[in-house]
Amino acid sequence: MIRTLRRWGWLFAGPTFLAFLVGFIVPFALGIYLSFTKFTTVTDSTWVGLENYSKILGDEVFVHSLWYTVAFTIVTTVIINVAAFAVAYMLTKAIKGRNLFRGVFFMPNLIGGIILGYVWLLLLNGVLAWWERSISFSEWYGFWGMVVLLSWQQIGYLMVIYVAGIQGISDEVIEAARVDGANNRQIVRRVMLPLLMPSITVCTFLTVTNGFKMFDQNLALTNGAPSRLSELLALNIYNTFYGRPGFEGVGQAKAVVFFVIVAAIAIIQNRLTTAKEVKA
Amino acid sequence: MKNLKSLARTGGIAAVTALAIGSLAACSSSDNSTDGSSGAAADGSVYYLNFKPEVADQWTALAKEYTSETGVPVTVETAASGTYETTLKSEMGKSDAPTLFQVNGPVGLATWKDYAADLSGTAAYSHLVDQSMALTSDDGSQVLGIPYVIETYGIIYNKALLDEYFAADWSTVKSIDDLDNFAALKTVADEIQANKDALGVDGAFTSAGFDSSSDWRFKTHLANLPLYYEFKADGVTGQPATITGEYLPNYKQIFDLYITDSTTAPTLLSGKTIDDANSEFALAKAVFYQNGTWAYGDISGQSVADDDMGMLPIYIGVDGEENQGLTTGSENYWVINSQASEADQQATADFLEWVITSDAGRSAIADDMGFTTPFDTFGDYQSTNPLTIAANESLASGKTPVSWNFTVMPSEEWKNGVGNALLAYAQGTGDWSAVETAFVDGWASEYTLANG
Predict the structure, then answer these.
(1) What ipTM, to 2 d.p.?
(2) Closest approach of chain B CAs to the CA of A138, in angstroms?
(3) pTM of the complete model beyond 0.95
(4) Would you call B23 and A213 a contact, using CB atoms and an 8 Å cutoff?
(5) What's the CA gap between B260 and B278, in Å, rounded?
């Protein structure tokens, strides 16, 4: 068995590995290389060392994007997880038509970000028109617009994960807690939540990285307006790369910095929540 | 439970790596949308990356005709509005790069100078009526860009509505001939705005939208006027390192008029698009619309008849502006990709010659696309676009045309800075001094950045 695997393993792992090499490793290495160069098209570059990185430091728009994105990620992570858990909790109760409700809540997730952005742009602008405003009036209009949009899109998706997690808790544990005199509130806080930590790890990971990486919805809803103040990091990188001749390398350097930040936060977050996981 | 937990952990870490790497990969990998220009490389082929979405279909049809006539494959791709530089940048990185692309003037050419072939031997250059219009290399030894369309902009107006205004008993200005300075324009606009219900319009001017599809009308085209007068007063030619902003109060005057006598509340401008402005004018909901000859396709065929479209100069309140004409120039230059194969470059030059000399090419350019060209081959092919006709009439009447100076604006970043400040001023979240800073100081810093 093992010998067969050794002999033929490459046949099964090979294609995927090749795709991973071509699709991820090569562009990743090329991307890091390009961040140290000056170029107009990616096939024609000259080495400039750390110049691109030093230009990031003086970029006020980038710094603004950074904290704006952090604020956005914190707000969406909290709102989405709390709401998704609440919906999942309700939809694991024996209520009529709960499968239908689960389907309906999940559905927004099936729509692409760009389309969703344009649809919400119409909706939000339509409502804001009552006060003679539009979504791009100030950075905070855009901020809350994006929060609403992302929550609407993601709550259903995370709800599915929480539903699976809640159903995985054995009834005996809940039953035992109830016999010991715990009320509903105590059961949720002291029994369910600790047992749900694996789901919470996955869900917070997804929301944190989604918040940081959000691009399509930002592009479609505000496109950074006004004055690039509602630009999240991914869009800022895109605009630096494509929007300013001579700044392609700086955009690339920002992408490297972005990678380091997202990877670091995701790993820390993973450590923190997995450390809280318990066994029943 | 244990399974789920370890799944979460390994899955999470794998996902961290994959997603984060993906974020980098997205910036560097070129997408592989087909451009179909491969094949028949031995004889050369043409791949034109078109700048103007409003004539995308016409170019595609013209390319097909050329291919059926000569057998040379011609591919035309069009970048969506406002994304030309983005598209060009990724297309140029491919092995089948565009053989023919566009730059918007000297500043645009600077970005792509390593990709610009010498065009001095081409028919397109020899047919230019005024060869000094072409873009040359810094030492003047090479011709790198050839303008192919002359465009004009000003304040497009609805003649029928304006005649109604002149006839009304509440109007002060009684004839289009008196409407030849800023004070008169302001009077007319203010009175129309005050009596908009009587005229059945929503406002004097269309919305001054600041969506990226529309903001260039103010941060670039309108900003040209204070620059034009400043350069004229100071005798500036070429690209100056600094500007004084002497005519900024005039810029403010005209901009105030646009946002006050408008169909739209200033606080809503940030989200208004060019389509909004087009439809307001096309449906006769506004009398004035600052735009150019290229807008004809978007505003014709609705409520406003072709005969009812006219164009006024943009008056900003400068002495002697009674003789000011429309704003005429070009920011559309053909450039042949010097890094394409010899055969492809030759095929591209031949295609351009065919476009400006054959019957099919000339009628497509003049009639279907409605362009006025700078070539001497278009004698019998005059555009039927009423806005182009208005532009030609203005030139013939002896008014001084205003030149296009925005080709020397130091960078897109400068335009964006001015645009952002203008919007903040319009919606009341910023004040005019920010526009002044972006205009004058922004110019100096962007010039330094671009020219060392």
Answers:
(1) 0.74
(2) 8
(3) no
(4) yes
(5) 19
